[in-house]
Design brief:
Elements lengths: L1 H28 L4 H20 L1 H25 L12 H42 L11 H18 L2 E9 L2 H27 L5 E6 L2 E7 L6 H12 L1 E3 L5 E3 L2 E9 L7 H12 L5
Antiparallel strand pairs: 1-3, 1-6, 2-3, 4-5
Length: 287
């Protein structure tokens, strides 16, 4: 949080400096008639480009502009041709000062761009970090995906070291988005809460329950081999396939499911491989 505060102060100081400097060329250039007004307009445009796209783009654009306008002024002075932009003469020393100030302002605008970009990245990183520490899904009371990865990996290590088994069940609710559109947010929240309560009734205290996507749940059954899974499936079918709406009417729900029993001598070495194998089974098995 201290870094974010320091970055905000830095950006504020740069913006104040930028605004103050922006008035300086305007004061001198407007006196030069049409040419001065045009140059001031180009200055604002180039600074705006640096502000949007960063220092490098702003500097390239500014240097090209200075080269073109400077070459034109040099040509006019050598050929003694009158300035086509104004009835007054726009002298080279004034243009050199203009170019120097333009570069300074482009650098400041680019720095503001970089600081705002970094601040945005910092905020997104903090949001990601916070989401990892907020372990409980608000709608169901289940743990989230980050916690699921940690728990499954810990259970895999425990089984590899001490033996035994665990079973991971994945459930995907069919037509979840259609339900949400048809019945609305309030009814969807009620559905998720009901599913959470129903699954909790089926599980033991030592088991783990997760919601890892909007319409997907995972059940980690500790000390459970493949022989006991069908009993759990039967209880789930009884509890979650029929749902009572807030208006007391009933709807039938369908789920895709998959599971795997992980034992000490399993050839699966990591969480990703384990998870992928169970998800591939979900395509074919309907609860």
């Amino acid at each position: 949080m201290r870094k974010i505060f320091d970055s905000e102060v830095k950006i504020l100081l740069l913006v104040i400096t930028f605004i103050m400097l922006l008035h300086i060329p305007g004061y001198f250039l407007i006196k030069e008639g049409t040419a001065g007004i045009l140059l001031y307009g180009f200055l604002v445009l180039l600074v705006f480009i640096a502000f949007l796209f960063g220092t490098v783009t702003g500097l390239y654009s500014s240097l090209i502009f200075i080269f073109i306008i400077g070459s034109g002024l040099v040509y006019l002075s050598l050929t003694h041709t009158s300035n086509p932009f104004s009835t007054t003469t726009f002298e080279m020393p004034l243009f050199l000062g203009y170019g120097f100030l333009l570069i300074i302002m482009v650098l400041i605008a680019g720095k503001i761009h970089d600081n705002i970009t970094n601040l945005g990245k910092m905020n997104r990183r903090l949001v990601d970090e916070n989401s990892q520490y907020v372990a409980v899904d608000v709608d169901t009371g289940f743990d989230n995906k980050h916690r699921m990865v940690i728990e499954v990996e810990m259970e895999m290590k425990r089984v590899k070291r001490y033996g035994g088994a665990f079973t991971l069940i994945l459930l995907q609710m069919d037509h979840f988005e259609d339900f949400k559109k048809l019945y609305g947010e309030k009814e969807t929240s009620h559905l998720l809460l009901s599913l959470g309560e129903a699954m909790l009734d089926v599980m033991r205290l030592t088991d783990r329950k997760f919601r890892y996507e909007q319409d997907r749940f995972a059940l980690l059954l500790t000390h459970t081999d493949s022989k006991s899974v069908e009993i759990v499936y039967e209880k789930l079918v009884q509890r979650i396939t029929t749902h009572q709406l807030l208006n007391n009417k009933y709807v039938t729900l369908s789920f895709r499911s998959g599971h795997i029993a992980y034992e000490q001598h399993s050839s699966i070495e990591d969480y990703q491989a384990l998870f992928s194998q169970v998800e591939s089974e979900m395509v074919f098995r309907e609860l």
